[in-house]
Amino acid sequence: MHDVIRNEADQRFEIHLSDGTVAFADYRPMHGKVKFPHTVVPPHHEGQGIGSAIAKASLDWARSEGLLVIPACTFYAKYMQRHAEVHDLLDPGYRKVLGV
User: Fold this and answer.
1) Total structural domains in the chain?
2) Which of 5, 19, 36, 63 shows its CA 20 to 30 Å from the CA of 55?
3) How far is residue 29's CA from residue 11's CA, in Å, rounded to a whole number?
């Protein structure tokens, strides 16, 4: 299991990997909403569930803060589209775009 850290100073959620690299998702708080514009998982760590762990932790945080989510990043848009348990977090403008 990977420990996801919320790095408030850099406005991103991070996982520090065993090889010294960092996977992360940037976030931008906005009036009652949060935008996730960019996610990075080092190529040699792709397919290990790292991006999903970051998305889950960050969306749990958004829920706890009462924020709607703007999935500007393709990874977040696809993740939220596939996971019905987070559809209620979607900013209404994105529900139609993602077909949920």
Assistant:
1) 1
2) 19
3) 9
Per DSSP, the three-state class of 51 is helix
DSSP 52: H
Sequence-ordered list of residues with C-beta below 8 angstroms from that of 64, at least 6 positions apart, any chain = none
First to last CA, the chain: 29
Let me know if 34 is exposed, middle or buried by CB neighbors in 10 A (0-12, 13-18, 19+). Answer: buried
The pLDDT tens digits for 50-83 are 999 999 999 999 999 999 999 999 999 999 999 9
CATH of the domain at 78: 3.40.630.30
Residue 95: the pLDDT is 81
- What φ, ψ does residue 40 adopt, rounded to 5°? -130, 125
